[in-house]
Write a structure and sequence with these properties.
With 335 residues, the chain is α/β, with parallel strands linked by helices. The chain has 3 domains: 90 residues, Helix Hairpins (Orthogonal Bundle); 134 residues, Rossmann fold; 83 residues, 2-Layer Sandwich (Alpha-Beta Plaits), CATH 3.30.70.1450. The longest helix has 34 residues. It is elongated, with a radius of gyration of 33 Å. It is a multi-pass membrane protein.
């Protein structure tokens, strides 16, 4: 691309010089005004053919012929080079990558997902369903084609490399999920990510408890063993199938949903009873200090609390509306 820019700059300089040369030539040979000379030069170079500003003498005709022969060649070459530069900019892999990475610079509070296998794909689908901005890192371009088709930001590279994490915006991200099918790789990602952004919430995949302990010591906030999780899910579906489907999100209904909602400053000091009365939602539990607490009607919400809210979709949305600073909607009874 740098070679093309130099060629394009040189060609533009030659054309500008040719316009100046033609203007001076007509000024000397025909004695026209400066504007007429510029007009005649540009008209000759572009082959528009509006007609000369005045009658041309023999010297002017010879000069115009030479100007046409040189100028038309340069103009055709310029158009060819411009078309080639535009097409190359649209198809060149390096240029495409640079355009993608320029979009990542503006992301804030997004989630970085490292590894796009079956687990990574499931994570991205869920996050996109929750309208979260996601950046996926994987060293296999063919694995990222589906993600790109879904409008997910992608970055080809090794997630264990700090420079790749930095290009994905890990320093500005809200959270990072590393689900590479390799415990050492996930451990390196946790170490690198926490080094770039100590406040980053990191969730890692581990294949056994030994690897999970190492990742927790490295700074992972949560560690998930997909095999153990799958086993627990299967057992729960055997023992309590309806509750398992409800809590896992497999069942969706406007009549009853459960959602986790952070308590904003505007709701600090309000009682559980008052919030439930205004919105119609049921406050099931309060997550405080890393522990779930069974809430009672007179309990007051505190800063940094998270509440587990259940009710009809409109009622739960009303609680979220209070969090976002909007007026709570009227209580809606499920039909």
């Amino acid at each position: 691309m740098s070679v093309d820019r130099r060629r394009l700059s040189l060609l533009l300089a030659l054309i500008a010089g040719l316009v100046l040369f033609g203007t001076l030539g007509y000024r000397v040979l025909e004695g026209w005004g400066w504007l007429d000379c510029v007009f005649m030069t540009v008209m000759t170079l572009t082959t528009v053919g509006y007609g000369s500003p005045g009658p041309l003498g023999t010297d002017g005709k010879v000069f115009s012929t030479l100007l046409m022969l040189v100028g038309i060649g340069l103009m055709l070459y310029l158009l060819t080079l411009l078309a080639e530069t535009v097409v190359r900019g649209l198809t060149d892999p390096l240029a495409v990558r640079r355009r993608k990475e320029r979009k990542l610079i503006h992301l804030r509070g997004h989630t970085v997902v490292c590894g796009y296998g079956q687990v990574g794909e499931a994570v991205c689908v869920a996050l996109r369903g929750a309208r979260r901005d996601v950046v996926v890192i994987d060293h296999r371009p063919e694995h990222l084609e589906w993600a790109e088709a879904q409008g997910i930001h992608t970055l080809v590279g090794d997630a264990t490399d700090e420079d790749v994490l930095r290009r994905a915006g890990a320093e500005r991200a809200e959270s990072l999920v590393t689900v590479i099918n390799s415990d050492p790789s996930n451990l390196y990602v946790v170490l690198s990510a926490k080094g770039l952004n100590p406040a980053l919430r990191v969730i890692a995949r581990a294949s056994d408890e030994s690897a999970a302990q190492k990742m927790r010591r490295a700074g992972a906030d949560e560690v998930v063993n997909p095999y153990q999780l799958s086993g627990n899910r299967i057992a729960a579906m055997m023992l309590a199938p309806r509750l398992s489907r409800l809590l896992s999100g497999d069942v969706t209904s406007d009549h009853f949903i459960i959602r986790e909602i952070g308590v904003p400053d505007a709701l600090v000091g309000q009682t559980v009873e008052a919030l439930g009365r205004e919105t119609g939602a049921l406050i099931v539990a309060i997550w405080r200090g890393g522990q779930p607490i069974r809430c009672r009607a007179g309990d007051e919400l505190q800063a940094d609390d998270t509440v587990l809210v259940a009710g009809a979709a409109a009622e739960v949305d009303a609680v979220e509306g209070r969090r976002d600073g909007r007026e709570a909607t009227a209580r809606v009874q499920p039909t």
